[in-house]
Amino acid sequence: MANELERSTRLIIKKECMEKISKENLKLFSKYKMDMEIRELSKGTIYGYEKDIKQWMGYLVQELDNPSILDLDEDDLEAFIYFCKTQGNNTERIKRRMSSISAFYKFLRRKKLVKESPMEFINRPKRGLPVVVQTYLTIEQVEAIRKYTRDNKNLMLETYVELSLSTMARVNAISNISWEQIDYNLLVITDVLEKEGKIVDLFFDERTKKLLQELYKERMSVGIQSPYVFIAMVDGKWDSVSTNTLRAWCKSIGDIINIPTLHPHDWRHSAATLKKNSGMDLETVSTLLNHSGTDVTRKHYLKEDKTKLGAKSREFSF
Fold this sequence. Notes:
Shape: globular
Distance between the termini: 34 Å
Number of helices: 14
Strand content: 5-15%
Structural class: mainly alpha
Strand order of the largest sheet: 1-2-3
Low-confidence stretches: 1-7
């Protein structure tokens, strides 16, 4: 880890990416800058916020295909923070970036352009500690989780884990799944609403199929008629589970296996890596993750099997 007393390394964003920031994102920032000037923030403060936010928007062009900032979630922001860390930003520099983005989202929320700030779900880093912990579960840890959910006879939690691992779906997609979208013959969940309004198909396995069918049977036996697969009681009635509840489920599982930082996005990282290291080609992994290309998959989602890499390297010694 970089010495916190050293000057933080500058963030490298390609010039052409800075020039391609979407007009929508620039317009939103322009409104925020006007708001800062009306509130008579100092020129230095406004300059600092502008620099941080523009670099973040340039990153969105360079790494995420230029999405609207209104469509981002905490996973996207965590990916940016992790990117800053890999570029050599120290803890204090990253905290300032996070504060700039957080203040921007507070403005957007006040203007009712977003319902919540995704930065609220991300803890600020502490000196000497990792900024973002990305967990790549081993198959042994996956089996331990399976045993825990099975032994505790929590069918909905067990189904959540298996569906998340088999589909590698984002947490907001998982929360939106309804029973009518499931095709048990083709093992696919069709027309699922994901981030940025994208509609995707999610593919699951036989183990998950069995759990889904058991969960539906259990639901019918107790007379719960909700159309959603994962549900919680909201205002006296059953409704689709919130992403915050899914995060809480994930954390409770993490506490059991001694990984208190376990996060819903870790199912994607873990399953992608386990599938890739088991022989699935990169293009298929990327497609199943619903990525726009393999670069994002390779950079942010896969942890190479060092044992296999070492063996491959020795195989081609000269």
